[in-house]
Amino acid sequence: MIKIVHYLNQFFGQIGGEDKADIPPLVRHEPVGPAMAFAAQLKDIATVSATVICGDNYIAGNQEQAIETIMGFIREEKPDLFIAGPAFNAGRYGPACGAVCAAVAAELHIPVITGMYPENPGAELYRDKALIIETANSVAGMRQAVTAMSALARKIATGVPVGPAAAEGYLPTGHRRNIWSDRDGAERAVDMLLAVLDGKAEEVGTELPMPVFDEVAPAAPLADPAKARIALVTEGGLVPKGNPDGLESSRASKYLRLSL
């Protein structure tokens, strides 16, 4: 049996909602919340020995200190595998899961798995440092996320080679590995060409995907910046202290207009 430690935020760790987002790291020596689902799906090969929980606001504002404390809890457990989340599209939770996974992988050299919606900022920041299973946008996809993450954890735990991102369901890491094929490159290239000519390019894909960069056309220059009225538009959730207008922390239902 292998030992797993799981990381959750205050909400999924069953501590509370936004009112508990400032809690510092703590540890429960048992599976909590989603960790219970992972424990159930992997019960024949693994145990979840501890659940580490930290408030989203706390780790966002005190990342170095928070991760140092979290790593202390994890070191004591001596896990064989580390799981975080899933974080779906939660903008603070995703980067937190990624940061903790990166720290565990760098120090303990064990496999780390998390789950995020592809547009979660944590996915872009940490996809090269952790295996990030692609999830739905919201917690409505919890069942599917746990199943996919558990399947990947099972492969790793039992020594089954992990395949490419498209086959296993994790986000591309940017790492390339050589594999053996029973058909040489010329044959595969001709098949790809025929598929493209037959309108089936998406079915075949490519063996060497190229990076895609967004291009945004710059706006025309201001005629007189000294007389310009400038607005700052952000989806960063920046609000006055105390959040007097009650902007929701996730899936907000309104826009706010604030004077600077």
Give a quick rundown of the structure.
By secondary structure, the chain is of the alpha/beta class. It is 34% helix and 14% strand.
Describe it for me?
The chain has 260 residues and is α/β, with parallel strands linked by helices. Helices cover 34% and strands 14% of the residues. The protein has a six-stranded mixed beta sheet with strand order 2-3-1-4-5-6, with helices on both faces. Strand 4 (81-88), helix 4 and strand 5 form a beta-alpha-beta unit.
Structural class determined from secondary elements: alpha/beta
Strand order of the largest sheet: 2-3-1-4-5-6
Strand content: 5-15%
Q: Mean pLDDT, as a whole number?
A: 92
Question: Using DSSP, what is the number of strands?
Answer: 6
DSSP summary: helix tally: 9
Unreliable sequence segments: none
Radius of gyration: 22 Å
Q: How many angstroms separate the termini?
A: 57 Å
What topology does this entry show?
Blueprint: E1 2-9, E2 26-28, H1 34-41, E3 46-54, H2 56-61, H3 63-77, E4 81-88, H4 93-108, E5 112-116, H5 121-126, E6 131-134, H6 142-157, H7 165-168, H8 185-197, H9 201-204
Parallel strand pairs: 1-3, 1-4, 4-5, 5-6
Antiparallel strand pairs: 2-3
